[in-house]
Structure formats: C-alpha cells, structure tokens
Amino acid sequence: MESVWRFLKSKQGITIIGFLVLVILVVVFYSISPNQTQAVLNSMIRHSTPLILGALCGVMCERSGIINIGIEGHMLLGAFMGYMVNVWTGSLVLAVAASMLTGSLMGLLLAYMSIKLKLDQVIGGTVINILALGLTGYFYTVGLTTSGKIMTFPLGPLADIPLIGPVLFNNGFITYAAIVLVFVLHFFLYRTPWGLRTRAIGEHPEAADTLGINVIRMRYMNVLIGGAIAGLAGGFLTLESVGSFERAMTNGRGFIALAVMIFGNWSPIGAWGAALLFGFATAMQTQLQFMGIDIPHQFVGMLPYVLTIVVVAGLVGRTHPPAAEGKVFEKE
Amino acid sequence: MNQVPVLEVRHVSKQFPGVLANDDINFSLNKGEIHAILGENGAGKSTLLNIIYGLYKADQGEILVDGQPIELSNTQDAIRHGIGMVHQHFMLVPVFTVTENIVLGSEVTRNGMLNMKEARQKVTELSKRFGLEVDPDALIEEIPVGVQQRVEILKALYRDAKILFLDEPTAVLTPQEVGDLFKVIEQLRERGVSIIFISHKLKEVLAISDKITVMRRGKVVGSTTPREANERILAEMMVGRDVILTVDKEPARPAEKVLEVKDLTVFSDQKHKAVDHVSFDIRAGEILGIAGVQGNGQSEFVEALSGLRDAAEGEMILNGQRMPFKHPRALVEHAVSHVPEDRQKHGLVLSYSLIDNMVLCTYYQPPFAKGFNRQNDAMRENAERLIKQFDVRTPNADVKASTLSGGNQQKVIVARELSRPVKLLIVNQPTRGLDVGSIEYIHSQIVKIRDEGAAVLLVSAELDEIMSLSDRISVMYHGELVATMDVKEATREKLGLLMAGVTPD
C-alpha cells in the first residue's frame, strides 16, 4: 500500500492519474453530448498546433542556451511570408517553405545578435517582435486573394474511429507535422549525441567546449531550426487554419508558447501536454460563448491568458530552466 | 635516462595585451613522471597548460609529443594526441549523470543513437582499471567534490589520455580527499600515465612530484626534484626573494570579551540549516580561526555575523550590547569591519573608482559628507592616503576597481575596512587566490590589528593560514563548531580529522 501511494504521489503517478481522469471525463462528456465534445476537442487540437510549434522552437533555442522571446515575431513574419507566397505563386508547398525559411532567417538574426554581437537575448527577441510587427503592418495590403488553403487530409480508416478519428486523424498537413515533430524532437533530444550535446551547451557550454564540441555552431544550428519551426507555426495560421493574413494575427501566441514550454519543463512531450491544455482552455472559451452562458465575453476570452499567468507564476522556481540560458558564451 | 620525452615544449611564448604571459618556455615531461609546475598566481602556469591543451595559440615555439612536433588549433587536437586536462573549476554538467559527462563529445552510439548501456559499461570498466571508484548513474550535483574530480580524471582517461594535466587539483579538497587524490595519481603513474601537476602549494608539490619546474613572471626560473629542494628553496624560487612562510607574531594577550554569540542558527538560501546553534566568544587582542572545508556553513555564518543575512535564532552581543541581525550599518557604526569571502561580489563595486570604493561604508559621515553633499576632495585625499599606506599598486585613485589584480583588490578592501576604528574584524578567506607577496602583507595587517587590541574572527579553508594566524582554532563541520582548541594543541592531522567529521576518542 505504502509503495502504491508513493508511486501515485510521484511525478509519473500524478501524470498517469491526470491522464486517466481526462480520458474518463472525455468519455463521460462524449456519451452525454457527442457533437459538442468533438467540437471542443477538434478546436483544442487546432488551437494547440501553433502553440506546440512555437514551444518546440523555444525548446530548441533554450535547451542550447539561447532565450528566444521573439517566437511571436518568427510566427508573425512566417505567417505573412507564407501568405504572400501563396498569393503570388498559388503553390502551398512553396508557401510553407517560405514561412519556414522566414522563421529561420529571423532565427539567424536572433542568433547573430546574441552570439556574435553578444546582445542581451531578451532585447534581441524583442527587436524581432517589433521588427515583425512593423514589417508586416507596413507591407500588408488588404483585399488580396489566394487560390486556397491546406485542406484536411483524413488518414484512411484511422479517421473513422469514433471521437479519436475525427479529432486526431482528420487534420491538415501542418497539424500532423506538429505532432510528429513533438516525438521526433523528444527522441533526438534524449536519445542521440546531438541531443546530449545540445543539452550540455545549454547547461554548461564551457564543459562542452573543452571536450571539443563547437558550441557556437551548435547554437546557430539549433536557433535556425527552431526559427523554422516557429515559422511553420505562422504558416499554420495563414495556410491551414485561417487562410488569410491580418495585422498582428498571432495575437500573443508566441508568448503563450513560451508559457507552454515552461509548463512542459523544456521537454517536447511535456510541452505538447501543456499546449493541449492551453488549446483546451481556448476551445472552452469559444464553446462557453456559444452556449450563451451569462458571463461577459471579455472574461471568457481572458481564459487562456489567465491560465498563462497562473501557470507561469505558479511554476517559477519549481521548474528547471537550462542553467546557461541567456548567458553569453565567451570562448577562451 | 636517454628516452624521448612524451611531451616537450620548446621556446613557447605568448603575449597578452600588457603582459608577456609565457616567455620562451622550455619544458619536458618523461613517461610515467609526475611533474609539478609551481608558481604564484599570474606566473603563467595556466597559460602554458592552455597552450598545450589547444585553448590558446602560442605566438611562437613548438610542442612535441613523443618527439613529433604537433599542430594544435583546438582542444580536439590535444585530445587526439592523448592530452587530457582536469580543470581547476570542474567542467562538468551538474544535471547530467557521471556517465553522460564522461562520454559527452565522444558518445558511444549505435545507428546514430546514444548507447548509454554500453557507455555505462565502459565507464565502469575504466573506473575499475584505474581504481577510481564512481557510481556511473549518479548525478554530478549530488556527489561530493572529490568524486567529481575523479569523474574529471575519468573523462580524460576515457579519451585515452596518456598525459594528464591537473590544474590546482587540491584547491577544493579536504586533507583526506587530497590523500585519496595522491593515491590515484600514483596509480595512474604506475599505469604509464604522465602527469603535470600545477600548484602553488609547496607541501603538496614536495609530497607528490618526481620533478618540479618553477615559473615566475612568465619564465621558467628553474627545475629541481623534491629530494634536492625544500619549502624555503621553492618559495624563494617562486617569488624571487626570501619570504616569511610562518607569520611573525607575539603570543596573544586576550583582554575583555568583545563578541559573544549564543545559539546562532542560520538558514541557507536553499532553506537548509547551515549554521546550527553555534555559540562562541572572542576577546580583544586575539584571533579566533574557524577551520573547515568549504560549504560547511562558513559562508552563512559570516554573512549572519556581518549583517548580510538574517539569523533564525540566537544572539550576537558586541561589547555587552545586543546587536540586531541583518543590519550592516549598525555593525559598521559599532566598529565591526568585514573582509568578505567574495571580494568581487561583496567587497567592492567593481565599476566604481577606488575613491568611491574606499568610502563604501562611511560616505555619509563627515568628512566625506556635509548634509547631502559629497565632499570629493576629502574622498580623494582619503583614497590617495590609503593607497600609499596599504601599498595598492594602481596607476591612480580614479581607475575602476575592476582593473586591479586580485591581490590589489583585496588590499583596497583591507585598506577600507581597517581605515576606520576596528573593535571586531571579520575576515573570510582573506587570501584566496592571492600571490605569496599579497598573502604575507594581508597576514601582517591582520596580526597588526590584533596587536592594536581588536578581536579578529578569521574564517579560512586554508589550514596553513588558520594554523599560522590563529590564537584559538574552532572547527566547523556541518554547521556546528565541533571543537575549539588553543593553537598550541592543534595539529594538521587533528584538524583534518575534525574537518572531515571524525571526532577523536
């Protein structure tokens, strides 16, 4: 009994209990009101996708020691460039590539500022956010039309499973990519030499350096890849979800992604769980508004942001950020 | 012996802005030899090692391994030639396991993935072969410093090091751990590893090395062996003049009780009980030394007594008057001086000039202030006088404190703290990282203030310092003062055991 209790109180225990409670709740709600449950879960996945992609960018950067507060900017510019390329060429493949490339370039800018110029990384990220807001606001013209957006693509018989099928296996390409990326990055981070080295340069870059690991090159690489992932998050918004661009359309998602990353304790799978939670909060917000509950909609609309504050404030001091993040690495 | 040296350094020079750190260095290391490089801080020992390890590029000269000249452009090259380094500040990732730290950068893989099982096996094998006991799955942050050092050595051996550099390896160890380290070093030698041992501690160098090379101001000043040398000869070679290794002082004449501490309990930042019901007193005209391995609560102890940290329990009575905790200004005004452990963090404002640093605790008092006005002339006059009096080597009083060397920074602090009336002087690690000349000077100042009738609380991890300065010695272990004795009753062995938590009888 003692040991069972101890397991239940442990980290894995709590995760498992939480997961089971969720599954039971979902099943109960599904049996009461299948349509609404499915709508909420669908919208949860849709809202969580840009968050998890943004958070993965955060994980890539911060694990290697670079604070990226410019995820919002990567996303916004990625969204804009993806949309514009879609308008110009009508090719969704090129559009997705453009949004990733744009994110990557922003990553390069951040890496250059923080590694080469040794600028304070929070300032560097803020520069990117303001740059993205300014550029997209200036170049955006109203009334452009595109030839379409990324369609949902049911995964054969998997999509026919009740509840799970339509929620998980009937999505657009970027949503699938996001879920696959979560597991791929998690695997790479904890099971490959690249991952071990990435975690080492985020914790103690001098140690890695003395063992012949090229800290600077690895940081550039990781921030570039992270930037591409955040760009993809932007692409999701304009190419798969909304289908068009609006000024400042990321609307703080890049910052929520940071909260998601912290809540997930800088691990991809943890961040996914957190992203789903935030996606769920957003989905509930819409659902509550539909249900005509008598709360001013502004309050309901606050839900995801309040959750962000609660999560970040509640977790500060209890999570373990990479020790060297934000610090300039000076090679001897 | 006419064998080819495993490592040879020929005519190596390295210029840094303002200093010639290495000046035409020649040096050779034979197989299976323990070769000590001895020198003061700033003598160029670490620069030389960093050149051989590929961290710096020499301006000229060549380095030969097994008689072949080698090209060194990064540490990877050095590692490939069988050179391994145990850095003074360990290069270990605290949240990684022992195994992860050892294999980092040369991972064991299968199909591109980490193979931690095999890596773990290799580490276990290696630790058995060289007699370096470690738990391969332990997290670095959870193992003692002595074991962390073993991990550093294993890191080098894992990369097939045949030449091992140990940079000040004993600085962080207890006397017992130093003994263990020396056994390990001898075992490594038996297995054909050649070792370069950097130190400025004469006793250790004499105890462990086969050959000793002494450096001073970037030059090799001579080579000798432990058989031919003794401490005095080595010290003279190091500093180039006769130094007083033992502090000259009269027997103490303790007078009235200055400080009385009762049941002091202090918590650390991590909310652990760092100081546990400590009681003691110090009289005017005596030095109480607190010995102990770093991290046994000394920092929190001194912080509480100097007003930097609140105490959970206990009383501090100064000259019969109860003092508040966490009130540094009250202490300053009751003639308590404090030379803190971390001179750059707590002792100085590095970006301030010497003028301002010299008045950090008295700037608001006359003659430095008149109402709201700073009296710049008085401050400058004060700084210039103290610079002269305490022999601070600086171009002028206007330079920032950060531009001075460690020894001169410490002199600035000592000058400031002793420039006002002192009834109680608290000094923590007063000579850490300083050269012999500065150490000698600071020691003499501490004795002088004692003879002038101040009570002195000296906290140091250097046993020699404690033994040569103190009149009474207390040993701190796990936050408690486990024993107090007169200096005449103290021996290194006795203190060493107490510091390691072993109580005699």
User: How far apart, in Å, are the first and last alpha carbons of chain A?
Assistant: 55 Å
Q: Write down how many β-strands of chain A occur, each being a DSSP E stretch of 2 or more residues.
A: 2
What integer value in Å does the Rg of chain B equal? 25 Å
| Structural class by helix and strand composition of chain A | mainly alpha
Summarize the structure.
Chain A is an all-alpha fold and 332 residues long. Helix content of chain A is 73%, strand content 1%. Chain A has a single domain (38-315), classed as ABC transporter involved in vitamin B12 uptake, BtuC (Orthogonal Bundle).
Description:
The complex is a heterodimer of chains A (332) and B (505). With 332 residues, chain A is mainly α. Chain A is built from 14 helices and two strands, in the order ααααααβαβααααααα. The model of chain A has no long low-confidence stretch (mean pLDDT 89). Chain B folds into three domains: 7-239, P-loop containing nucleotide triphosphate hydrolases (Rossmann fold, 3-Layer(aba) Sandwich); 244-335 and 421-505, P-loop containing nucleotide triphosphate hydrolases (Rossmann fold), CATH 3.40.50; 354-419, no CATH class. In chain B, a hairpin with a 2-residue loop joins β7 (109-110) and β8. In chain B, α14 (406-418) packs parallel to α15. The longest helix of chain B has 16 residues, at 175-190. Chain B starts with 6 loop residues before the first strand and ends in a 6-residue tail after the last helix. The mean pLDDT of chain B is 88. Classes of the chains: A mainly alpha (332), B alpha/beta (505). The interface between A and B is medium-sized, with 21 and 27 residues.
